Every structure is written in structure tokens, then in C-alpha cells.
Amino acid sequence: MEERTVNPVTGVYPATPDYVHALELRGSERLLFVSGTMGLDGGGQAAETLEAQLDLVWSNIRRILAEAGMTTDNIMRVTSYLRDAGYAEKNQQARLTALGRRRVPTTAIVVETLTPDWLVEIEVIAAA
């Protein structure tokens, strides 16, 4: 699988250090579409704080990826659904920690979640 970051330098606003405009893939054999994943523990209970939920979200994503024989290195796209715009910075930091040096297209959207104690939900697309 070949990847190419697409970040035009003219005619569009510049990409920031934590973000890319697009990621082109060639030769991918498998795609994995991960549903919105919440910060719930194994019993389905939401963690009490945003930080704890973000830790659980990324732990849950890593587990789902592992089941498909993938890691966070296979993530090609991240969409975050935040209950409050004030969560953006902590969400960004959790994503950067989870992905390490990897930068992928990402979007964060402020929404009303289905349950008030769900503070964040993240979906990813992965490829191998």
C-alpha cells in the first residue's frame, strides 16, 4: 500500500502541524470502517471525565483494529464527535498521542450525544 499526503501550498489555507488536507492511498487491499466508538469500559459504563473517556475511546479503537490485524498506523481518517466545543484541545491531544507522528485527515464536530454522559465519540477509517 502506498500513501501520499496531499497538502496544496497555494489556493487553500495551510495545513497545521497536527492535520493534513488529504491522504491518497494506492494499492490498499482492505478497508475497515470503525463505528463511532465511545469512552465506555468493558461493562458499557462511561468513564466520568473527558480524559478518561478519551483514554477508553482510543483503547477501544486499538482493540477493534487489532481484531482486524491492524494498528493505529493503518488509520487513514478520524472523525470526532464532541459534546462541547471546549473539548477540542483535549481531543486533539489524545489523537496526537494515539497516532504518534502519523498525521491523517481529521474532523471534529460538536453534537448532542445520545446519552448525556457520553462526552466524545470517535470513528475511524483504516486501510491495509
Describe the structure.
The termini are close together. The chain has two helices and six strands, in the order βββαβαββ. The radius of gyration is 15 Å and the shape is globular. β4, α2 and β5 form a beta-alpha-beta unit. It is 23% helix and 30% strand. It is an alpha+beta fold. It has a single domain, classed as 60s Ribosomal Protein L30, Chain: A (2-Layer Sandwich), CATH 3.30.1330.40. The longest helix has 18 residues. A four-stranded mixed beta sheet has the order 3-6-4-5, covered by helices on one side. α1 packs parallel to α2. The mean pLDDT is 96.
List keywords for this structure.
128 residues; alpha+beta; 60s Ribosomal Protein L30, Chain: A; 4-stranded mixed sheet; two-stranded antiparallel ribbon; 6 strands; 23% helix; globular
